[in-house]
Amino acid sequence: MAAIPQARPQTTWAAAVLVVVMLGAMIVDAERRRSSTDLSEARSLIHATGQADLFLSSGSRWLRHPHTTEPSAASADAPDGLDVDPAGMIIPGYDGARGGRWLIVLPRSR
Amino acid sequence: MSVVVVLDHVTKRVPDGRTRRTILSELSLEIAAGELVVVQGPSGSGKSTLLAIAGAMSLPTSGTVTLTGEPVSRLRDAHRAELRRDVVGFVFQELALIGSMSLEENLLLPLIPTGGASSAQKKRIEALLKRFGLSERARDLAASASGGERQRLAIARALVRSPKLLVLDEPTAHLDAENTANVLSVLTELRSEGLAILVSTHDARVAAHPSIDRVVQLRTGSLHGS
Amino acid sequence: MKRIRALASYAVSSLSRRRGRSLALIASLALSTAMSGAIFLLSTSLDATADTLAEAMPALVVQRMVAGRPALLTHADAEAMRDVPSVRQVTERVWGYLYQPALESNVVVYGLDQAAIAEAMGDRDASLADDEVLVGSVLGAALGLRAGDRLALVPAGATPSDDHAAILVLRVRDLLPERAALVHGDSVIASPPLARQLLGLAPGDVVDLALDVFPPEEANVVAARALERIVGARVIERDALTRRRTVTFDARAGLLSATLLPLLLAMLLMTFDRLSGLGALERKEIGILKAVGWSTRDVLTARMLESGILAMLGAALGLLAAYAFVFLLGAPGLSDAYLGWSNLRPELALVPTLDLDLVLFTLALVTLPFVAVSVFPAWRAASLDPERAMRGDA
Predict the structure, then answer these.
(1) Is residue A3 scored above 50 in pLDDT?
(2) B104·A4 Cβ contact <8 A
(3) Distance between CA atoms of C143 and A19, rounded to whole angstroms?
């Protein structure tokens, strides 16, 4: 007499279990990478040079430091602005009022 | 004998273009436990509609239907489905098997909404498979079963929940003589076990079987009893 | 619970019986999750790494502006800041950009005193001779340099073709650590005299002042003092630089994500269409379910479970693909678009920010809209009249 078998299909359930296992492995791998990443050398270097803006592309060179080789760079005028365009696109151009120190030259003489 | 299903002055009309067509007209019928009733009539006479209403699958336009004392038309969809599940076993003309499922998966279908098969129900299913000679093919797809096997499977599924009323719509329509005899033999057994059975057919052999208690004729939407 | 488990089991069975459609839906979900997930993982990883590195920066940097352009400071300006309360250290920085024709790129030259060199090299006794330099790992790799090699640099103001004698040939003392490539990949660290020579600065010229402030909350006050004491001062806060970087790269990530919007919309539409269009077999199957006693609610629940399972599988596969793409393969193509073009390009060793919370959040983010999109088609399917559905009239 045939016994009542397990509900089919085993293949789909097996695939689901495999996916869950792989997700777990991914989380473990991410944690392993995090804990094995030692940025202390890099931090010492940054502390020594005082520089931590990212070396990424000449296109975003003006991120390297607010005084840059590109006189019209956004950062030169409003690094604190929410809008990447210094003249403002959807949001008006920023005038340095919110927390930043981007004041235009103070009229003070020595 | 206790009455299982009562149809009282049931009328069914369906939309037909801009008008409505009357399929059943002021029809009344009672079936008691242990009674085997056959409804005979030509194609298109409304037999399937009558069975659908008796089996609480469909609601009448007017009149009342009572199943084991419960007035069906007053129930909400969910409760009607529950009643249908618990009280009625329906065998459809098209058999209504899911071909891409195995034989035992088809048997399990009515049990899924209530949480699957309990151990008692699993035993019942095994017993049904054995009774109807389907044990060896339990894991095969329903689409691969023969006509006779599929018919027996449809009856087995209708019995999974130990219903009080078994409704069969043209159960022998596509069967040869041997299989027809098998089906009638099963119905005879079930009748003697106390099931109320309603069968629709246009097959004279079925109507003439000695275990039939009553044959009623359905013509022009009304019943003419024997 | 038993009911849901039984319906879920049926849902899985139903999905596997419609293998083609299920796989197509999973694949499209996985693809869209993978693409948007890759951008997200890349940007959050860069943010996290950069934030960690930025903590080592000085709290304030003071420049001078003349006619709106950066100008040089003097030693006297540094002295003016030394007695400001909360200023622990004032570093007179000598650094700048130096264009190298051979590379068609800028290198960044730093002049560090002995203490800073020791800190940079992690060796208390380290120092650099006036003809020695430390070279960033990316620059070193681009030129094939190793410790002990010679490096020729064209100092500011010199034209190699006119005056070969102006070219400085320097000894590479060592390469800077690869882990610092994100910040110092293109750096050249030298002694202050050599740095001045390379940058064309006179003795006594200071490019800017790095202020070490304690407690950090006093930064505002110190900045105000700098503005008072140094003519034309401009004070740059560390947080402002960090915010700038975040805004810029968030904007880039946003732009990249926006390019995916048509794909996501198309996928949602396709899903809706796929789930709405019940084939004859599907309608019949629903009719059968209702005929054997399933209520509308049962059918609806089963259909929603089908959608949920599809969505979770698709989202999970997409997330796995995104992770592998970014952290195992280095996000080829995508990292170029996200980080921008440059002649010198670092090999990014980014640290994943992914954890269980983020995984669950991503799964929910994909699953919920997908299930929501499937509600209406599922309800329509569940409401079919069983008799008509089986006969094919519905």
Answers:
(1) no
(2) yes
(3) 44
Q: Which residue would you say has higher pLDDT here, B67 or C335? A: B67
Q: What does the pLDDT average to over C147-174?
A: 81
User: Where do the H-state alpha helices sit in chain B?
Assistant: 47-54, 77-87, 103-108, 119-131, 147-159, 177-192, 204-207
Residue C292 and residue C365 in one domain: yes
Neighbours of B34 (CB within 10 A): 17
Q: What is the dihedral of CA B90, B95, B99, B101, to 10 degrees?
A: 20
Q: Residue C183 is nearest to which of A20, A27, A46, comparing CB atoms? A: A46
Instruction: State the DSSP string of C69-124.
Output: EEE-B-HHHHHHHHTSTTEEEEEEEEEEEEEETTTTEEEEEEE--HHHHHHHHT-T
HSE (side-chain half, CA atoms, 13 Å) at C22: 18
Buried b (16+ CB within 10 A) or exposed e, C204-215: eebbbbbbebee
Name the region of B66 (left: φ>0; alpha: ψ -120 to 50; beta: rest): beta
- Total structural domains within chain C: 2
| Cβ count within 10 A of residue A27 | 18
Classify residue C66 as exposed, middle or buried by CB count within 10 Å of its CB (0-12, 13-18, 19+).
exposed
Q: Which residues pair with B6 in a beta bridge?
A: B30, B66
Which pLDDT value is given to residue B33? 94
* Percentage of the residues of chain A whose pLDDT score is greater than 70: 38
Using a CB–CB cutoff of 8 Å, tell me whether B135 touches chain A. Answer: yes
Range of the domain at C355: 2-53+247-391
The residue out of C197, C229, C261 marking a domain boundary is C229
Of C50, C179, C181, the CB nearest to A38: C179
Asked if residue C293 is part of any domain, the answer here is: yes
The alpha-carbon radius of gyration of chain B (Å, integer) is 17
CB atoms within 10 A of CB B78: 12
For residues B168 and B176, the answer to whether their CB atoms sit within 8 Å is: no
Residue B67, pLDDT score: 92
DSSP code of C324?
I
Helices of type H across C200-279:
219-229, 238-276
On whether both C34 and C95 belong to a single domain, the answer is no
**Prediction ipTM score:** 0.81
Report if residue C344 sits inside a domain: yes
Query: Looking at the domain assignment, is residue C298 inside a domain?
Result: yes
Tell me whether residue C241 is in a domain: no
DSSP conformational letter for B45 = S
In terms of domains, do C222 and C251 share one? Answer: no
The residues near C126 (Cβ < 8 Å, ≥ 6 apart) are C117, C118, C120
The token pair at A63 is 């991120």
- Which site among A12, A13, A29, A45 would you substitute to test the C interface, given the most C Cβ atoms closer than 10 Å to its Cβ? A45
Task: Record the pTM.
Answer: 0.75
The answer to whether residues C299 and C155 belong to one domain is no
Tokens of B128: 């049904």
